[in-house]
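forwarding from the other thread:

> can someone predict this with S-adenosyl-L-homocysteine?

sure thing
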Amino acid sequence: MPFSSQLNAVAICRTPYKQKFGIPRQPGLVNAVGYIEFEPAFNHLDAVRGIEQYSHLWLLFCFHENVAQGWKTTVRPPRLGGNEKLGVFATRSTFRPNGIGQSVVKLHGVVQRKGKVCLVISGMDLLDGTPIVDIKPYIPFSDAILDAKGGIAQDAPELMPLIYTPLATEQINHYCQQEQYQDLAELITGVLAQDPRPAYKKAKDDAKLYQVALYDLDIFWHVTAQGIEVLELKATTV
Ligand code: SAH
């Protein structure tokens, strides 16, 4: 049953995550910094008056890179190893009937960038360019339910140990000297410690070379007996 006119993006989320692979599976797991840039029709400082009194915001957004693929009534959550199926509404699957995502993020402040009102945020799990359909203050007395049952997602994912080759260490130190890559070391550590691989890959010896795209850099890594080894960084070639 169609219920309303189409939804319009009120803002676009700008993040270091340039591809879906590697983005943390929920917010708050990696302290990446991002920006919410308001679209022209919503670009009014008045519309965010008083927002700085809140430490966190709810972002409602569209999984825009997935909507074209549609949805199924059951999905295979990564937490269940990709084998078991659950109903789509019993998961946070990114393939949903209306493609709506929901993330709570930390608010750092309101700035003006290139003539646009922007919210400075961190901890988001959103792909760069994600359309934001609504922004709401996080209200602890009603949003934080400390004794809630989290089902298959009761706890944050376990973290993998990380090791770095001398080349990767030298490259990260070099990039971190530059303003735009200040949080690169923390970002690489946070993203890779989550072990972004698909669930079925974690079950066996995995000699594959992986790459995640952060900012305009490709980070190459693989899995060893000691953990995830960061091999080297290269400027993204797209
Ligand atoms: N916290 C949200 C999202 C959880 S799933 C919710 O519960 O609804 C998080 C995953 O969404 C990320 O790992 C990334 O792979 C995917 N994702 C993020 N932004 C996306 C986008 N714009 N389109 C498609 N998938 C996206």
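The CA atoms of residues 63 and 99 lie 5 Å apart. thats all i got for now
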